[in-house]
Amino acid sequence: MTTPIQPIEILRVGAEQSERLPDLLVTEEPLEIRVGHGPEADREQFSLSVTMRTPGNDEALCIGFLFTEAVINSMDQVLSVKYCEDLGRTEGMENLMRVELKPDVEISDEQFKRNFYTTSSCGVCGKASIDSIKVDCAPLKPMGVKLDKTVLFALPDKLREAQQVFKHTGGLHASALFTTGGELLIYQEDVGRHNALDKLIGMRLLEGKNNFEQLILMLSGRISFELVQKALRAGISIIAAVGAPSSLAVNLAKEFGMTLIGFLKADRFNVYSGREELL
Description:
By secondary structure, the chain is α/β, with parallel strands linked by helices. It folds into two domains: 29-131, Ubiquitin-like (UB roll), CATH 3.10.20.10; 149-277, 3-Layer(aba) Sandwich (Cytidine Deaminase, domain 2). The protein has eight helices and 13 strands. A six-stranded mixed sheet has the order 9-8-10-11-12-13. A five-stranded mixed sheet has the order 5-6-3-4-7, covered by helices on one side. It has a two-stranded antiparallel ribbon with strand order 1-2. Helix 1 crosses helix 6 (193-206), helix 6 packs parallel to helix 7 and helix 7 packs parallel to helix 8 (247-256). It is flat and about 65 Å long. It starts with a strand and ends in a 6-residue tail after the last strand.
């Protein structure tokens, strides 16, 4: 199995001298996600996506991706998720996963039976238009609690301390779920920011936990439209990030009543949407 970290020798060039040193890189490899569906007597399979990701927690990535893309609505629709075992070979199997859906799950030819390529930096490449990636989500309900700004100030450091692979490589994005009291529940890392969020959502679904409403999503980078869309699909109503949001991300957050916080630091942050949630 491929590891998330790869050793390498580098040449470090200084003002006065250069030296060869060992270093570590974050691994980036393709993962093809295949979907099996249909009645028991007539199963079909198709390739849904190829995404560039950091190996690890691939089951969660597949489940999270299918959920945030509205292919499935819950784990109740899934029979199994595992690496492909019927290819007659072992090489490369760790980069092929198949999700088997229950016979009663319907797949739309127009919406899902298309192969689209996802880079590690952009999760919407290959989709024809913004309308095609807006899933049918209801407006979010207010959390009913006020957020303490001192709790928010502490989140970036808590996430940074938890990022094990980032400590060695500096080349990963992270997504984490916190309680409104600042307790870290779960986090995931990946070379792709959208993959990290899919892994996070997928991991929670695999654990049988479907409630995201009373949690804060913390992001290690910027807030893109696709990340807001994925969070909406899960019912997450608060996103905080160390980076900036895009204009589309803010517009979508306002449309659905999501609280959006950017440039979160130890002593300040910007609120772009949902000011009523804050003290």
